[in-house]
Write a structure and sequence with these properties.
The chain is an alpha/beta fold. It is built from 24 helices and 24 strands.
Length: about 700
């Protein structure tokens, strides 16, 4: 279906003026089930209204699941009925992961019935590719709505922080403070209040009511004050009255009343300010029995973590660890139960890095705020702790205790609820683990409709393509900004042809989504074999080129791969220096031992090594030092930063200087205009790649030495 890329001026002005905060900012869009010919015009109209679209085009559920874990997306545009993944399936996956990403469903004919069905299925909007103007307005509207929702969540987080700070101040205030709910019943009172009224705790105040502690002469005056305050939102007032302690003695005090919030509900705060009462002791945030952090500290840390996650890119996980047979253990140990909890606390300190927060949440509950978004790592640490707790029970005081525990985990991301609800979610997951099996682990999942079974045909598709020779290679030049040495550099990009034998222009993202290591290695070998043939053809025509060939994680972990590569180079009689193998930094981090062994073998062969997506992690410098690559290809985030800031920052320039000093050549990908080229040249970047130079083509025809 063809989409027109020209738009009326009125529509362009509306999209540009509606929300200026979005102008010249990256907009991250996932296209699902669209062809490249359908995607390109959409990107063009977004650029017309001064947005910077950063997109990815995917075609099956595995690609989609992987893409969702890679970053936070602003928008999904999905075909109503795609070959392998429908818009409805996309919506179900997004809902199941509890992510806030609006979905625009594309239909052939945008009828009233299509709109009704789409909205019923949870779509944010329904549009046709033929309705260019309407599609742009819907994209613009959904981005506005998303920004508003993010702002609301951030404001809710700030409100929660203010409420928490207010509560903490109330707990430690020198003034006697009471919170009343909207039916005037006490819901909180601090230690200073208990001391002032000579009572043992809040339960006495709640049992007898507040009027019992005010002189009868002032009851009417006090009731009138509260009644009037209920009708004056946002206002406060004060009154001088006589209070009465539990022993009958009286005291004069100034009573200040105002609207407030406590534990996420509206309330009224009363502050008694008589003379002669000191400040309450400051909480040390340490549980005395275990010397772990206490509940107050955990809640404070949890709230801060949730706020950071709302801004994007700082996801984490909360582990709720409950001893299911705690009361039985208490009966067995009697006075020794504190010893048991102290020894378990020592276990946590030994197993969990100080980067994360370990706390005692309740008598029988521990919690860990795990500052890592990776669910696999979180599940591994949960399993490690579960086994350690069971093992520790057998050795505590020589009693051979049978400790039973359930561990619930909940994610913290940019769609996270109020931080107190996170604890409820983790507890719900722990309950699910207990229901499923003793000593179990469970991850909280947002309620969702039952997902339809989907058959992933990626492996069969790739195998058939290799048999039928449906793959082709494209080449994109990598050009030196300094001086060439007679060798042209190209990156090899794999393409899969469609049924009409036309190139599917999008990069072969499907490779990374494969669950079949054998198929991944076979595909890597196919690319290498055909790349060597291209080099051989070039050498026969006096054309010397070096090809940058991407390898998957499966090849990195395959022991026979090095032997095969050595034999293949010898058979083709290709100089190893004309091959540069590109390995993702994320793949190296996932299996560093296998990567180190593989890279060492590659060096012995004489091939070059390039780490792509360099800088995606915090330990990039260390990985670079350990692997000593010949080249690195910068992650896209560096180019995005330069685009947004309009210049290179000192940290980026220092990075390039250090790489040049270490004799590691640096490649900047995705260069699209002369401004970016100029900034990279000034920063000292030696190589560039991107559509500004040339898009990927079936033939190596770039003139490096013109």
């Amino acid at each position: 279906m063809k989409i027109e890329s020209s738009l009326p001026e009125a529509t362009i002005r509306l999209a540009m003026n509606g929300d200026r905060q979005r102008l010249q900012q990256n907009v991250y869009i996932l296209f699902v089930g669209l062809s490249e010919q359908e995607v390109s015009p959409i990107l063009a109209i977004l650029k017309q209204v001064r947005l910077i679209p950063r997109s990815k085009n995917i075609h099956n559920p595995r690609q989609f699941a992987r893409a969702l874990s890679e970053r936070s997306w602003d928008l999904i545009i999905s075909q109503h009925t795609a070959k392998d993944i429908s818009a409805k399936h996309v919506q179900q996956m997004v809902q199941r992961l509890d992510k806030d990403i609006p979905i625009i469903q594309l239909v052939t004919n945008n009828t009233r019935q299509a709109n009704i069905l789409g909205i019923r299925d949870g779509m944010a909007a329904v549009a046709s590719l033929a309705e260019t103007e309407l599609l742009l307005l819907q994209i613009h509207q959904q981005l506005q709505h998303l920004d508003r929702r993010k702002q609301v969540r951030q404001l809710e987080a700030l409100l929660a922080e203010a409420e928490k700070n207010n509560q903490k101040l109330a707990e430690n205030s020198r003034s006697a403070i009471i919170y009343l709910n909207l039916v005037m019943a006490p819901i909180f009172s601090n230690d200073a209040c208990h001391e002032l009224l000579a009572i043992d705790g809040a339960h006495i105040l709640q049992r007898h009511g507040l009027l019992s502690f005010i002189s009868p002469d002032h009851h009417n005056e006090f009731n009138n004050l509260l009644s009037g305050l209920q009708h004056r939102a946002g206002e406060g007032d004060s009154i001088e009255l006589t209070g009465r302690r539990s022993d009958g003695t009286l005291f004069k005090t100034l009573l200040e009343v105002k609207h407030s919030r406590f534990e996420n509900q509206d309330c009224i705060q009363l502050a008694f300010k008589p003379d002669g009462y000191g400040e309450a002791e400051t909480l040390e945030n340490i549980d005395t029995a275990t010397r772990l952090r206490d509940k107050h500290f955990l809640l404070d840390k949890l709230e801060m973590t949730a706020q950071r996650a709302l801004l994007g890119g700082a996801d984490a996980n909360l582990l709720y660890i409950r001893l299911d047979n705690y009361h039985d253990l208490q009966d067995t140990l009697q006075q020794g139960s504190d010893i048991m909890m102290a020894e378990l606390a020592t276990l946590f300190r030994d197993k969990v890095s100080q980067t994360h927060t370990c706390a005692r949440l309740e008598k029988d509950v521990f919690a860990i705020l795990y500052q890592d978004a990776n669910l696999d790592k979180t599940m591994r640490i949960a399993e490690l702790i579960r086994k350690a707790i069971i093992k520790a029970g057998k050795n505590i005081a020589g009693t051979g205790l049978n400790i039973q525990c359930s561990i619930g985990i909940t994610g913290i991301n940019d769609n996270t609820p109020h931080y107190l609800e996170l604890i409820d979610r983790a507890e719900e997951a722990a309950n699910a683990a207990l229901d499923a099996d003793k000593n179990g682990i469970s991850f909280y999942q947002a309620p969702a409709k039952a997902a339809e079974d989907q058959t992933d045909e990626a492996v069969d598709l790739i195998r058939d393509a290799m048999v039928e020779d449906s793959f082709s290679l494209h080449f994109q030049p990598i050009v030196s900004l300094r001086a060439n040495k007679g060798i042209g550099n190209y990156e090899v990009l794999l393409r899969l042809q469609d049924e009409d034998n036309a190139d599917a222009i999008s990069p072969s993202d499907f490779i990374a989504s494969l669950d079949s290591p054998t198929t991944s290695v076979r595909l890597d070998k196919w690319v290498i074999e055909h790349s060597l043939r291209k080099i051989h053809e070039g050498l026969s025509n006096d054309l010397s080129v070096r090809l940058f060939i991407n390898l998957t994680l499966s090849s990195l972990q395959s022991q026979p791969m090095l032997t095969w590569l050595r034999q293949t180079l010898n058979e083709e009689k290709i100089p190893a220096k004309l091959i540069c193998l590109q390995i993702s930094e994320a793949d190296i981090r996932e299996n560093q031992a296998a990567a180190a062994k593989f890279i060492h073998g590659i060096r012995k062969l004489g091939c070059k090594i390039c780490i792509k997506h360099f800088g995606i992690s915090d330990d990039s410098d260390r990985l670079c030092t350990d692997t000593k690559p010949d080249l690195v290809k910068l992650d896209q985030k560096y180019l995005n930063d330069i685009n947004q800031e309009g210049k290179t920052n000192p940290a980026f320039t220092d990075l390039i200087k250090q790489l040049n000093k270490d004799k590691i050549a640096c490649i900047a990908p995705m260069v699209e205009d002369t401004r970016m080229l100029s900034r990279l040249w000034q920063a000292g970047v030696p190589f560039i790649q991107g559509y500004y130079l040339q898009p990927p083509k079936p033939e190596m025809e770039y003139d490096f030495f013109d």
